[in-house]
Amino acid sequence: MPEPLTPEVPRRPLRDRPVRVAIAGTGAIAREAHLPAYRALGAGVEVVAAFDIDEAACRAFCADRGVPHAYSDLGTMLEEQRPDLVSICTPPAVHREQTAAALRAGAWVWCEKPPCRSLEEYAAMEAAEGGEGGPYAAIVFQHRFGSGADHVRGLIARGALGRPLVAHCQTTWYRGADYYRVPWRGNWAAEGGGPTMGHGIHQMDLLLDLLGPWSQVRAMTGRLVHDVQTEDVSTALVRFESGAMATVVNSVVSPHEMSRIRIDCERATVELTHLYRHSNGDWRITPAPGVPPAEVAAWRDMGEDVPSSHLAQLRPLVADLRAGRRPRASGADGRTSLELAAALYKSAFTDTTVKAGEIGPGDPFHAAMNGGGREL
Prior knowledge:
Blueprint: E1 19-24, H1 28-40, E2 45-51, H2 55-65, E3 69-71, H3 74-81, E4 85-88, H4 95-104, E5 108-111, H5 119-127, E6 137-139, H6 147-157, E7 164-174, H7 188-191, H8 195-198, H9 201-211, E8 214-222, E9 233-240, E10 245-251, E11 253-265, E12 268-274, E13 283-287, H10 293-300, H11 310-323, H12 331-350, E14 354-355, H13 364-367
Parallel strand pairs: 1-2, 1-4, 2-3, 4-5, 5-6, 7-10
Antiparallel strand pairs: 7-11, 8-9, 8-14, 9-10, 11-12, 12-13
Helix pairs in contact: 4-5, 6-9, 9-12
């Protein structure tokens, strides 16, 4: 079992040792996604500690999974273990505080979605980052990673499919009453929003990653089933800078669960249908009449199948950490889906069209997704 480091003991350069990792929050996402992803990287990564305010749960997590050090105080863990990378697997209300603490301690951060509860909180997280070379805070947006997403992004970016014209982004999931018995779910102060923030943000992020910047949003939200503060359904019409137009639907009241993106381009339709992760077989490309078969075959050849997953995002993140490069899904790139969510909420609450860039400091929707206390 490694001894805790102290500020007086210098660490060897990263090129000479494994990346030291700590996990903040020991719930399901840490157990089922983060820790397995780190372990899959092998000897290049060493999970040295975990933190949770529930000391018994943290000790059990560490004992069951061979993590050397358990902590119930984040600051003590950061000071004693001096990790290179911290996974933030806690509820959204503490993401800003814990991310900033890790960054100030010199650690890079990989923070679960939603990144935080507001654009104001995200700005505070960005302000805590280091200068050139980091430390940086990346957000867990694993759906934009994997071979299928990489391939389709490339096709669209180089114009192989023609201009994107019409798109549909769908996250129609089902959550029963038991889901909302967790105290921090379904209220603005703790979660920051409903399925727009906690569920649909993954597909929204992938849509933005494929189509680029949006220009305006018109939206509606509703609370149709659940006795909570936040919405359980949201819909939006989105216009992109490219001229493409999209519909976005987010729901937790849909028994037939589905995650779906469809993009109609001039020369082909691209469709992705899945639930919680996707692989090459979940993508379908339908050519317009007249496209040469050889070209269609090249479009459909996505190469080695690398499914979307935490591991698919973690591999390049660790490589960026070692190289001192800003990773994808951090900084301005990590903020894009949060900006779209804020615009969706503002449009729904104010019954107006919201333009990109209009929600800044001083706007009530910059500080809170419900505009500082508005009710549905």
